[in-house]
Amino acid sequence: MEKETIYRTSFTPYLELFEPRTAYISELRLQHAWKNSLWKQTRYDTRGRKIRILSPGRHNHSDGPDFLDARIMLNEKLLSGDIELHHRESDWYAHKHHLDPNYDHCILHVIFHTPGSSAEARCAAGNILSTCFVSLEEVLNIEPPGSCRIFSPEKAEYFDLLKKQGWKRVNKKVQYFYDNRLRFPGNVMLYWGLFKACGYRYNEENMIKLFVRFPWAAYCDELLSPRDIIPILNELAGFSSRYPDQRTIRWTHSRTRPAHFPEKRVLWLGKLMTTYYHASLADILYEICYCKGTCDAMKSTLFDLPEVKPPGIALQKEMFMNTVLPLLESMRKEKKDKEPVYSLIRKKIENCTITQTYGIVKRFHDQHGIDAKDGRQRSWLISQGVLNIHDNYCSQGMQLNCPICLMEEAEDIFHK
Question: CA 190, CA 128: separation in Å to the nearest integer?
């Protein structure tokens, strides 16, 4: 009974960081969806009162409410004023609108996440707004504004810009680990990244679910028996025959090659966690990096384990670049070390190449007329730059602000 309790112990302080990711939708996209079609439907506020929007208002691109001079019918009462859009009802107070007189003329607060127990939106003048909930699914069904400018840029400038964008993405990863260093052990953040990578596209969210279920508090406090680590993982993953009817993670095998079957990846993770159970793997990797100034010894520590087949070379590289190096760089910043760690990490990021270009990256280069044989396509850092552009501009309908698209605009203005 006591062992069962340990198995089921949740690492509650870490759940807010390690829950599966949700899609980010920019507020600009919310505004675009509102002014194009969302306002045309009859809505109800959180008190059940009927809302008919007669005019969605003028889109405000400056300070103040998102839409000005709107008109709505609240039940049978005509209201004229401004409309503010937020992801959550609590954002009204997080953005300090309750203290800003510019929001005193608001008549409607539109939110896109299910309302909870937060207080209703109150203006600085004291009036309380009607709050209207619209589901994010409605927003996602509306095409975002803008489209990519299809043109062939000057190659050197194009790749230089993507390198800069790649460093932005890398720095975000480093900052993520650095910002959470006082809240979460480096070891746990390291394993979180390794679990994610072991999902190999089709099982990433499943691997995160497995990570969250594992009793990390007991693991960090060394309350588990080392021989129980792999059985615990198999049980929580639903691979154990002990509880065959309790499989709640729906693993994908059909589109995954046998080498990437989740059972094999979980076995490798379990072996790694068992091997370094009484030591901090993150600290070991940093010490190797600092003392030996090479990545080979770190890779050997991670992947050369007895009696278990490691992930493939391509997956090893992804783990190293996306998790190990950003974590080590965050540790370097905390320790205020400089050399040789700084140069080693930077050189590895600058020179790393990928075996096969990611699909999103390949399509991006194709759109801009980059020859498939151009070796720069295989640069890991440049690929990170494309992903950063895609995440922050392409997928958010922000092409008008995209630095790549603006390259053509700048050229056109110059030639005029």
Answer: 46
Residue with token string 């520590």: 301
pLDDT tens, 346-379?
Answer: 999 999 998 888 888 888 898 888 888 899 999 9
Lowest mean pLDDT among 7-16, 168-177, 348-357: 7-16
Q: Is 236 helix (H, G, I), strand (E, B) or coil?
A: helix
- Which pLDDT belongs to residue 4? 38
Phi, psi of 74 (to 5 degrees): -100, 110
The half-sphere exposure of 95 on its side-chain side, counting CA atoms within 13 A, is: 18
Domain boundaries, the chain: 27-140, 179-348
- Beta strand 43-44 pairing with 50-55: antiparallel
Residue 234, C-beta contacts closer than 8 angstroms, at least 6 positions apart: 240, 266, 270
User: How far is the CA of 304 from the CAs of 257, 289, 300, 307, in angstroms?
Assistant: 22, 17, 5, 10
180, burial (CB in 10 Å: exposed 0-12, middle 13-18, buried 19+)? middle
- Would you give the distance in Å from CA 307 to the centre of its chain? 34
Phi and psi based region of residue 150 (left: phi greater than 0; alpha: psi -120 to 50; beta: remaining)? beta
- Return d(Cα 153, Cα 408) in angstroms, integer: 7
Query: Shortest CA distance to 114 belongs to which of 95, 131, 96?
Result: 131
Alpha helices in 22-62 (DSSP H): 27-36
The set of residues, in sequence order, having a beta carbon less than 8 Å from that of 279 and lying 6+ positions away, is none
Sign of CA dihedral 120, 109, 395, 167: negative
Cα torsion through 330, 218, 243, 196, rounded to 10:
0
In DSSP notation, 63-109 reads: SS-SEEEEEEEETTEEEEEEEEEESSTTHHHHTTGGG-GGGTTEEEE
What residues pair up with 84 in beta bridges, in sequence order?
109
Per DSSP, what are the bridge partners of residue 122?
128
Report the alpha-carbon distance of residue 231 to residue 215 in Å, rounded. 13
Return the DSSP state at 37: T
Helix (H, G, I), strand (E, B) or coil at 55: strand
Residue type for position 366 = D
> If DSSP codes are grouped into helix, strand and coil, which group holds residue 51?
strand
